[in-house]
Amino acid sequence: MNALFHLKLFTYKGLIKSFK
Question: What is the pTM of this model?
Answer without folding.
Answer: 0.30
